[in-house]
Amino acid sequence: MGSTTQTSTTHFSSSQLSNSSSMPWLGSGQTSTGATVIIKRNLNNVKRMTSHPAHRYYLTGAQDGSVRMFEWNRPQQVICFRQAGNARVTRLYFNIQGNKLGVADGEGYLSLWQVNQTGSNPKPYLSWQCHSKAAGDFAFVTSSSLITTAGQSNDGRNVCLWDTLISPHNSLVHGFVCHENGATVLQYAPKQQLLISGGRKGFVCIFDIRQRQLLHTFQAHDSAIKALALDATEDYFITGSAEGNMKVWRLTSHGLIHSFTNEHAKQSIFRNIGTGIVQLEIRPTNRIFSCGADGTLKTRVLPDYFNIPTGVFDIL
Question: 287, exposed or middle or buried, with CB in 10 Å at 0-12, 13-18, 19+?
Answer without folding.
Answer: middle
